[in-house]
């Protein structure tokens, strides 16, 4: 089993799909690993470290011979289509639903495509849950980004030059990213308020020492995700949130509904109520935005309120985000290897749901 690790570095991507530790584990499983030169640089991993772990460093995976399993951070590239042959597999955050043509093309080539976004959010699959590991990194990074942009301290300071009040941080959407944002803002000493449509999040918010806003809630779907709310509820929600938004120094929004545009929680008229200098980090900007006017990877200034729509938050802590993601991938591959060779069980409760493209002619893949 020959595994390939791409260098996917761009100005918005610093993560890598393996670490020296995961490389060593693949070799212990009986595999061999080729890593593209520079793949780990922005995650703090040198070629030499990958080499010491047992990987072969190559300029391009196309020089590395047949790749059986390609491990990726992001979507499929043109080069991946030329690299992978029938019987191989690719694992990555392949963005199913938005990049289906590329996935279908590779599947037609006989490649099994496994999207890490589709790993179920179950207890069994926890160690392979890349959405959670990357949302943890992103939620943390969102608070740091906001705190360094805000012209204020986050904690209360009592100094000889006077008492400085703590900053008020509001987190809308309390999934994995939101919970990490609350915890991070609390550690930095801010006064934190939060809200989510799912009623069970109230207790989670309060257990972190933050205050829950009393606005409408509704039960989640059977998968544990939020459902879209009807327009009447959404309007009531926006009304009740308006005061809290206006009073916040730093607003972090994370609300998502799988397979749908992100819900609009804050209208432009409410952004206008925020004090100049306030900062908004709209973590849902890449899927339509929770805040009216936010733009992916842009800064929009509304009367001195800066709205950021970063899509690269996990990559801003590339070393630890990669460490967690590489572990997710290692656990996935571990689950698919039997006696040193890859056996993809399409009925497996973790692997099965993550397969977004399985070649028609084969029931499984073994190399
Ligand atoms: P997500 O990224 O899909 O959404 C973020 C948050 O936005 C969610 O908490 C959601 O309820 C909220 N939201 C959606 N619409 C909203 C609205 N109109 N107003 C306010 N908030 C809104 O969420 P996620 O972090 O991926 O988590 C999804 C679910 O999966 C959660 O129930 C989480 O507890 C669960 N989960 C379970 C496991 C596990 O059991 N292993 C692991 C991770 C997540």
List the helices and strands and how they pair.
Layout: E1 2-5, H1 20-28, E2 32-36, H2 47-52, E3 56-58, E4 69-71, H3 78-83, E5 89-92, H4 100-108, E6 112-115, H5 130-149, E7 157-159, E8 162-164, E9 168-172, H6 176-187, E10 191-195, H7 201-207, E11 211-212, H8 231-247, E12 250-253, H9 268-271, E13 279-282, E14 299-302, E15 305-308, H10 318-336, E16 337-338, E17 341-342, H11 351-354, E18 355-357
Parallel strand pairs: 1-2, 1-4, 2-3, 4-5, 5-6, 9-10, 9-12, 10-11, 12-13, 13-15
Antiparallel strand pairs: 6-18, 7-8, 14-15, 16-17
Helix pairs in contact: 5-6, 5-10
This protein binds nicotinamide-adenine-dinucleotide.
Nicotinamide-adenine-dinucleotide binds at residues 121-123, 126, 129, 131-132, 135, 172-178, 196-198, 220, 224-226, 229, 254-258, 263, 265.
